[in-house]
Amino acid sequence: MSAAIPKTIPLLSGVSEIVDNYDGFVIDLWGVMHDGLEAFPEAVIALKNLRAAGKRIVILSNAPRRAESVAARNEELGIARDLADAVLSSGEVTWRNLKERTLPFYQELGPKAYLIGPSRDLGMKEGLDFQFVEQVDEADFILLTGIWDPQDTVEQYDSVLKPALKRNLPMVCANPDLEVIRGGKRELCAGSVGHYYEDMGGKVQYHGKPYQDIYRECMQLVGIEDGSRVLAVGDSLRTDIAGANTAGIHGLFIAGGIHSEDLHGLNAPTDMIKLVGLCQRYEQYPVAAMPIFKW
């Protein structure tokens, strides 16, 4: 029997209303802590207050870069390193799998890789025992970290993906997100290209939210065995809330992020109808929601 669909979802004015219910927090970055260009002041204050309250905090991001690179970028945006116990990224988990090659998928990869992604993701190549080639016809697999240009559509990758598909090249996707809002403008993420390749018939290995390998490591980092004492804060029902629900931890949904065009505020009764309807569409329900992450 499936769980009953809630008629309402508790709306919070601040995370302080439920802070005593949790010992650990798993915090998303993009859409929760920043917009890709600058940190949200209210979110930084919330993080500082969680730290002052002695809470364990892990920042969990679908950024297709190493964790150290993500932490350094956070500092540039105004999110200090000491505001979290650890930073974990989909790029870090992807890189480790490529490095260690313990999973059967990675053991079967050939030595030549073709990278699809912007220049800021080139650090993903460092330290790996693969030869990165300039032409997909020379590759044994594709490493997908992101799009080349913010204005790209998935169809613009046909010139790479169609030849790859003819040769049955597997793909490793380091960011399952479909899109992101950078400074108020929507851009495609690697996940959109990955799903496009899958729809063509290609084989894709994903790492990051909502896939559970990253949550298992995250729970080790947060150091709390009881999942009901851990709150994941995120703005995506498809990744953040779905991943938290599957991992057995609670999810706090930030409505002002990736779903902001579906939810114009969360105050009137009609807004709650929209929120529950959106959650029903994704079949994922948070324990609470708020417009922005704040204390």
UniProtKB/TrEMBL annotation:
InterPro entries: HAD-like_sf, HAD-SF_hydro_IIA, HAD-SF_hydro_IIA_hyp3, HAD_sf. Pfam families: Hydrolase_6 (PF13344), Hydrolase_like (PF13242). It comes from the Bacteria. Keywords: Hydrolase. GO terms for molecular function: hydrolase activity. NCBIfam families: HAD-SF-IIA, HAD-SF-IIA-hyp4. This is TIGR01459 family HAD-type hydrolase. It comes from Kiloniella antarctica.
